[in-house]
């Protein structure tokens, strides 16, 4: 049976992955990598659009790659590549620009929200869905792995592919199906927004044990519970939500918490243990890879070369299909 092509990835606007990244998509990448052709893009061109920490992008690429490998991404099955090192992606991007308009782009919830808040000052951010389409469609991807909040962008990607296919008069591009990394968005420690390093609400993979414990102590629980003997509400309690991510059986805890028999400190202690135990082997691997940066560079070079060869091959086929191949 022919392996399916999966394109997924992250933007190196940060230098540390957090548990939201892991449970939101990386865990599913690890699950699907062996039986499929998985391509993992580090979208450094897209990271420029917010104009933050641009000077740190190269360093972030290295650190994110280290954490990918430490968490379980296996380069036997997964090609990790750097977006900016495949210029042919820009050809797909330029072509797709001709099939969308401004009104189409601002239907994206994230873009619409940022425009409303007047936080967008460049076309790079507004045309992000087109760039995403170029990344996904250039590999003729069957699937992508994204969180719930990214689904509107993939829907736009598929609309672009349909428009281009209609123009060509065939089905050159596939409809990209979605593999949900997690059915629910992984919320930050305060329970209000998606977990994000920029919002200072994340539990980072490579933080020290002391830093992780400090963050866990800040986690939103039940604001109405000012004493331990007051019955607690666990439904919107982020500690219980995080424990479920680690497959911890919370049935007994929920009952004890609801009856006012256990404190917030007690359930946070259990969460700390779960996180720290999970991260022990991960941190050992991080330390090992940090001592061999040349190996990480080679991983990126190899993954990028393989990925570029595929994009170039598909671009040549596309140009012939379109009748744009001059030579």
UniProtKB/TrEMBL annotation:
- Keywords tagged on the record: Aminoacyl-tRNA synthetase, ATP-binding, Ligase, Nucleotide-binding, Protein biosynthesis
Q: What is its EC number?
A: 6.1.1.2
Q: Which domain of life is it from?
A: Bacteria
Annotated InterPro entries: aa-tRNA-synth_Ic, Rossmann-like_a/b/a_fold, Trp-tRNA-ligase, Trp-tRNA_synthetase
- Main EC class the enzyme belongs to: ligase
Supply the Pfam families for this chain.
tRNA-synt_1b
Q: Which reaction does it catalyse?
A: tRNA(Trp) + L-tryptophan + ATP = L-tryptophyl-tRNA(Trp) + AMP + diphosphate + H(+)
What's one GO-annotated cellular component?
Answer: cytosol
- Any GO MF annotation of the entry: ATP binding
- A GO BP entry: tryptophanyl-tRNA aminoacylation
Per the similarity annotation, which family is this? Belongs to the class-I aminoacyl-tRNA synthetase family.
Q: What is this protein called?
A: Tryptophan--tRNA ligase
């Amino acid at each position: 049976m022919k392996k399916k092509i999966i394109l997924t990835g992250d933007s190196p606007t940060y230098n540390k992955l957090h548990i939201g990244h892991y449970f939101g998509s990386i865990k599913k990448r690890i699950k699907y990598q062996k039986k499929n052709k998985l391509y993992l893009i580090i979208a450094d061109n897209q990271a420029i659009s917010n104009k933050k920490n641009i000077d740190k992008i190269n360093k972030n690429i290295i650190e994110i790659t280290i954490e990918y490998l430490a968490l379980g991404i296996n380069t036997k099955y997964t090609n990790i590549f750097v977006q900016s090192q495949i210029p042919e992606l820009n050809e797909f991007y330029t072509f797709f620009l001709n099939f969308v308009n401004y009104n189409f782009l601002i239907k994206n919830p994230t873009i619409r929200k940022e425009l409303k808040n007047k936080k967008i000052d460049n076309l790079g951010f507004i045309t992000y869905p087109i760039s995403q389409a170029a990344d996904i469609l250039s590999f003729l991807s069957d699937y992508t792995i994204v969180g719930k909040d990214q689904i509107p962008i993939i829907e736009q990607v598929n609309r672009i592919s349909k428009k281009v296919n209609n123009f060509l008069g065939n089905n050159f591009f596939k409809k990209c199906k979605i593999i949900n990394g997690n059915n629910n968005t992984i919320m930050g420690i305060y329970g209000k927004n998606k977990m994000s390093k920029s919002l200072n609400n994340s539990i980072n993979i490579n933080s020290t044990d002391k830093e992780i414990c400090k963050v866990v102590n800040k986690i939103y629980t039940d604001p109405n519970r000012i004493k331990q003997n007051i019955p607690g509400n666990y439904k919107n309690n982020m500690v219980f939500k995080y424990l479920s991510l680690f497959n911890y059986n919370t049935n007994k805890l929920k009952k004890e918490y609801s009856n006012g028999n256990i404190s917030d400190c007690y359930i946070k202690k259990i969460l700390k243990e779960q996180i720290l135990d999970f991260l022990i082997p991960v941190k050992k691997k991080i330390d090992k890879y940090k001592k061999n940066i040349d190996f990480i560079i080679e991983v990126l070079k190899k993954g990028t070369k393989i990925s570029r060869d595929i994009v170039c091959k598909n671009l040549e086929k596309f140009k012939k299909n379109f009748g744009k191949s001059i030579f």
